[in-house]
Amino acid sequence: MLTYTIRRLVLSIPTLLFISIVIFLLLQLAPGDPMAQVPLTVPPEVKQKMRDALGLGAPIHVQYWKWLVQFFWIEPQVFIDWLTRDSFLFGWLPDTNLYNGQLRVISWQTRSPVMDIVVQRLPQTLWVVGMSYIVGILIALPIGIYSAYKQYSLFDQAGTFVSMIGFSIPPFFSGVLVIVIFSVNLGWFPSIYDTTHTVPFSDWLFGEVPFAGFWSAFKVQLNQMILPVMVLALQTTAQISRFMRASMLDNLNQDYVRTARAKGLKESVVVLVHVLRNSMIPIITVIALGVPSIFGGAIITETLFKVNGIGQLLLTALFANDLPMVMTLTFIFAILIVLFNLIADVLYGVLDPRIRYD
Predict the structure, then answer these.
(1) How far apart are the C-alpha atoms of 205 and 208, rounded to whole Å?
(2) Which residues pair with 113 in a beta bridge?
(3) 3-class DSSP assignment, residue 81
(4) What predicted TM-score, i.e. pTM, was given to this entire model?
(5) Which of 90, 178, 290, 299 could lock 83 by a disulfide, CB 3.0 to 4.6 Å apart?
(6) 154-to-129, 147, 157, 159, 161 alpha-carbon distances in Å
(7) Which residue range or ranges hold the ABC transmembrane type-1 domain (predicted)?
(8) Which domains does the chain carry?
(9) Residue 290: how many CB atoms within 10 A of its CB?
(10) Which of these, 177, 174, 156, lies nearest to 165 by C-alpha position?
(11) Long-range contacts of 152-159 (CB under 8 A, 24+ apart)
(12) Contact in structure between 145 and 276 (CB atoms under 8 Å)
């Protein structure tokens, strides 16, 4: 398994390089000019200097090489320096000074480093989209398991009905619907997500903030997360519960299940140990490949609830023709997809001893 993992990691390098070239060339073909939003009062020679400063006058291969060096060499140095100085987990390590002020990947829209903006937006995306994914999985797995075990029962039919609703209703409709019902009519939850609100978890952990202050801030955060989490978790639950049900039904009719029952094993052991373990193999793929969507955010939902996450950042960058931002975000998503594909393959061998990559 270790040899297979190392081989896959080595093979992922040319794969990611090819993906980065394709993304870069496609973005170069996109229409628009990043200097189009510059006021008309700015003289042409000043605009030309601004274009040169942004690297727009260099050949395509030079621009790509600069981005490649900045992303794979300079940004990791900045990240290591941040870990040793400001990180809560690695602050005990000796300070490093790897980054010496080299030019980083700069956003054309904000004129600031792209990765700094991504780090600022990432907590909001993890709070909302990440939590909705976890909630959706925790709800979907029991529903899929019980629906398969009680096939064609009232519970199974109700689960199928709810899943069809989750598949059929798009987020831009369900999001507006829950805002109208729970925010406008009932007034239970806010319709706008306050991204300036923070929960002082580390301060409370070190005794700098009392538990009452931490708990009140946490309740406010939980209250504003309910609506967007509800909208996104509905889609996740609908998808994974259907896959779970189909996989369980396929394994419940296998010969090894009849053998286990004939040996006198309890029904709970047969279903939750033997059948569930084999049924989770295809579900691992669905769950693992869905993880990159957490970091990508949900563009529609984040826009509806005014969540300043990664999804909304990508949308604004596309509208502003901010190629460095779009290039960096899409490539990060590609890295996550390749990485979680590998994680899913490794988990196959953990769940099923018959699967080996020798």
Answers:
(1) 8
(2) 106
(3) helix
(4) 0.75
(5) 90
(6) 31, 9, 5, 9, 11
(7) 122-344
(8) 2-40+115-351 (1.10.3720.10)
(9) 16
(10) 174
(11) 156/245, 159/241, 159/245
(12) yes
pLDDT tens string 264-317: 888 888 888 888 888 888 888 888 877 777 666 567 777 778 777 787 788 888
Give 178's Cβ-side CA count (13 Å radius).
23
User: What is the pLDDT at residue 80?
Assistant: 76
Environment class of residue 10 by beta-carbon count within 10 Å: exposed (0-12), middle (13-18) or buried (19+)?
A: exposed
Q: Which of 67, 4, 9 is nearest to 335 (CA)?
A: 9
What per-residue confidence (pLDDT) applies to 355? 60
CA atoms within 13 Å, Cβ hemisphere of 117? 25
Residue 126: count of CB within 10 angstroms of its CB: 16
* Residue corresponding to tokens 């000796």: 94
72-78: which pairs have CB atoms within 8 A and are 24 or more residues apart? 74/99, 74/102, 74/103, 74/104, 75/104, 75/105, 75/115, 78/104, 78/113, 78/115
